[in-house]
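Q: I'm teaching a short session on how sequence maps to structure, and I want students to see two examples side by side rather than one. Could you give me a first protein with its sequence written out and its structure tokens following it? Keep the formatting plain so it prints cleanly on a handout.
A: Of course. Example one:
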Amino acid sequence: MGVLKTDSQNFFNWSNIWQLNVLAFLPTNDSKYAVETLLLILPSFFYMVYAVVLSSLLSHRSKTSLFLIEFLVIVVPVIANVTVLSQYVTNVVVITCFILGFHLVVSLLYMRVRNKKTIKTANKNTENKKDYITNCRATINLISVVAILAVDFKIFPSKYSKTLKTGFSLMDVGVGLYVFANGIVAPEVRGKKDSIKSSIFGSALLILIGLLRLVLTKLTHYRVSDTEYGVHWNFFMTLGFAKITSSFILNVFSLKYVWVNAVLITISHETLLQLSFKHWVFDSDDRSNILNANKEGLVSYVGFAAIYLFSVYFAYNIRQAERNYRNVNLRFLLITCCCLTMTFFCNYHFEVSRRLANAGYIFWILFIGFFMTWLFFLAEKGQHYLFKNKIKNYVCSPYLYEAINYNGLIFFLVGNVLTGLINLSITTSRVGNMNALMILVVYMFINCGVVYWFYRKQWKLKL
């Protein structure tokens, strides 16, 4: 028994050795959270692949049945990842990878036997080249909405909460990845231009939602940290102003050279931070006027605008090479390597700060976003290769992901409203672990159910 225990410990602790080796190349003490954050996000990729294989095999089932299956296969494990399984992040990645491999082998054997008996001709292929974008955006939305409530419970590790000044954490990447997710589906990526008038209208609605949130939080005395965005500022205002700024630039300059604008904004932003703004945000407690009261939001929105512009340009660049599989992979490789290298460089010299949305944060978000997009792209091509002419009407994107992607803003808004209601109704910090898990599952079921219903009715909120 002692030998078995030792072997088990060796098997599950190899990940700790791997993490130490990786961390040796990272410049700051809190950089270990960068690896953990990436490993917390990575299993959602495996859950997606597992879900689409099941949905393909069960494509004859009703949409409601598929929704329930996908909720159990994707959403519930994501909740577990950021709570009860968060201390075993590397082990979860390894185990889910093995389970997925076993599931794919069994599914392929099943399809081979079934095809011999029932299917002798080529089946219809429902190929959609943009399913990987759907999967990436839905994953970002899903993890973000889970985390905004989970962080209020003690079952959620405090090390994954938003950092006060600098560092890497799961909660830090949410807002940046949300901006990234909007950038990769911007009209400009498809060769269209969103007029400044249209952009201002859409942004005005976002800012209005932000003002409404401000009024509601003040009326209900809902606790909001001033160091996150400021006293009056919030995420919706950041998104609105970033969209206006980006739209103006995209309408004035050619898309082929938008990366130049993004680079100049990033360099200028970092220069101003190092000269004075960083000290203003971090070292001054003065909130006596409107500027000082909202300094975090005013300073960081520039960085988020740069993330949006980089996302639009890189997505456009990849779209131009989509017909050539090797070219797409080469571009993904170059982009992710470049962003990772710049993250290391900026973290060494300036550190990474979500509160400032500085250069290190910009490239860290771009690295995670495009690395995950690349994985989803490879998964989609793999599914086409494995399932073509084997499964009739196979899918490359879960039905639940289609629903989330169809109404991403509704999904996020419902999550914020439910989070506020739950926090006003109970003291979340005193809730036990099992009760917290139950609340999170019900919360996500309601949220996913709303977008599922909207998708069935083809109701869409578009800004």
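Q: Perfect. Now a second example for contrast.
A: Example two:
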Amino acid sequence: MEIHKAPSKMYLDIVHELRDIIKNEGIKTGGKLPSERVLAERLQVGRSTVREALRSLELLGLIETKRGEGTFLADFQKHQFVEVLADFIMQQPDSFIDVHETRRIHEISAIKAVSRNSIFRELPVWESLLAKIEHNGEILREDLIREMIVATENRLSLKIWFLLKQYSMVRFDAMTHGMENSLVKDVLQAVRSGNENAALAAYKKWIDVVERERREESNDSRHF
């Protein structure tokens, strides 16, 4: 029987607790992580929630699952793609526009993929995000896009997006506020119903708000 927690306990909460378990138990590269059942009991969440967090970490190449054996901490030295891409961006002084546009391409592609796939649309994470907005009046901006890409199971896209997010300097690490919450709810509801056009329209309005905030902060900093 799964133990269910309030929907406010999201991906980042689970990841942080998994990180603490790895650290506190001294799990090294190649070491085995506790099973889904054990993690669900220890973290007091449903197994489906643990499964989503583990899948996200696996897509990033941080852990690896071996069928019939369990989940293991990956060898990070085998995953150099992010470092190579970062070096390329750092060496291109005029790459900001490309970074900005490419990041949006990955975001739009994920929203399209989820909207078109009935299995992706029915993942419990969308309901959890909506419930978190209702209960807390906000979510972490990153949660919306990251979960969209995670749902598509495109590991490469997720790695690229994390890097592009960092260099585009958009405040995805901030919480949603004001009209953002309504737009994010529109995105989630449209995705769940498979209305791709409505989801993309709401996303574009929302991301314009988020990016305009970055531009205004940049302009303010130049005045000092």
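Q: What should students look for in example two?
A: Point them to this: The mean pLDDT is 82. Also worth mentioning: The beta strands are 63-66, 70-73.
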